[in-house]
Amino acid sequence: MNELRSHPVAPQKLYIDGAWEEGTGEAQDVLSPIDGSRLTTIVRASAADVDRAVAVARHAFEDGRWSRAAPAHRKKVLHKLADLIEAHALELAVLGVRDNGTEIGMAMKAEPGSAAGTFRYYAEALDKVYGEIAPTAPGILGLVHKEPVGVVGAIVPWNFPLMIGAWKLAPALAAGNSVVLKPAETASLTLLRLAELATEAGLPDGVFNVVTGQGSVTGEALAMSMGVDVLVFTGSGGVGRRLLEYAARSNLKRCYLELGGKSPNVVFADASDLEQAAKVSAAGIFRNAGQVCVAGSRLLVEDSVHDAFVDALARHAAAMKVGDPLDLTTNIGAVNNMPQLESNLGFVTRAVEEGATLALGGSRVLEDTGGYYMEPTVLTGVKPQDNVAQNEVFGPVLAVTPFTSDEEAVQIANSTKFGLAAGVWTSNLSRAHRMVRDIQAGVVHVNTYGGPDTTVPLGGVKQSGNGHDKSMHAFDKYFDLKTAWMQL
Ligand code: NAD
After folding, report:
1. 255 catalytically annotated
2. Could you read off the pLDDT of 437-474 as tens digits, one per residue?
3. Which residue's CA is minimally distant from atom 18 of ligand 1?
4. Candidates 293, 302, 375, 392; catalytic one
5. Residue 459 lies in a domain
6. Longest Cα pair distance anywhere in the chain, in angstroms?
């Protein structure tokens, strides 16, 4: 790993039509959050570059080189890509960590590990998708075909680029579509490398293209493109809102949005092991420096165990090591970029102004490294309507609020505009089921936090989004239905 950590990273290009292209935009420095040093450059793709990538993807789709390839062939190529991701797992993980700051222990599993698994899942699924024969009157044959949608535009964030990229790419490619993907400006490197590996795996040129650059230029051009049929996105609600506008102003492309969260983690006094609950809850908010969409960022604790539980959680949090994400003993890596770190600190300042108590952390640390690090931060006495309880920090900041009854727990849990994830800790089975039923969220963890795999969907309700990644449910986004109505 030491060799990989200092390995020079060549200036990056765009990946279009199975080859590297200079593009027409200028270069942008990539700063490593580990120490603030310049890692390499990426290209800020212009609207013209995006148009070219979309045209290439469209051409590849229409000539059938992938869209009409035999399912058995597509399956083989996607399995080969998974093999290559696994063979290059350490290289990909270290490159990604240098780019985005996630601690390496988590990155190995969540990035190449998860991406390879996702490609295998959809490789296996693709030849199990059947059309339908409708129960029509005898003189008619009604067939429902499932067809790939065409060109998929994918825009992804910086927290887990390979994992989230694969959640979009794997089902899109498995269904036979072509893809143009735009990574986040501060986490492009692993997805560029993935494109190269896809070519090596046998994916035909032009089927998977990567355009890097700014959201407001490259991302907007992709979302406005008349040549993109479906747009899949993971990121913030503000950008998601714009994408819907772009779709309305262009070709009414379908947009599937996976957005942010402010997920409640609800601890009842009857939880069977409060110490374990405290430990898992600390990991559930602080791993990857809180830059996890489903992070349990609001802790709701039953009044009778509030103080003891918060003490236990703070003890576990304080024992988590913040630091160099390439150090295997690190539990909390770097914040991805300086504006995000400043935003995190701003949330803490305002929370204290609004009356919360700083029970742990609250500051930037390891500033002398030049990197962007923040200590795990626990705010107690947070009122449900406070800024830090209502808005996503996307950093290592936990807002704690006590409750006294099941009804109050549900009411506070549902009191934000978000509905992505939740946690419930109780040994009462009926209460657990009631909470799963009553809490508005795409996933409710019971007596654990985090970890759902590819077999189950991930998606939000309310303003956390409108689509699902993972599982067979996500596959539907990448197919159109076509009816054949035949007089016999
Ligand atoms: P972001 O919304 O700032 O950026 C996401 C992507 O959108 C980036 O590639 C960015 O360049 C692009 N973008 C920005 N402006 C754009 C524009 N005008 N037009 C088109 N594209 C544009 O999000 P982020 O800061 O990279 O990631 C953090 C957010 O992502 C958080 O809100 C987090 O909760 C969310 N997230 C959600 C999930 C989920 O599954 N629901 C998973 C991970 C992250």
Report:
1. no
2. 999 999 999 999 999 999 999 999 999 999 899 999 99
3. 216
4. 293
5. no
6. 79
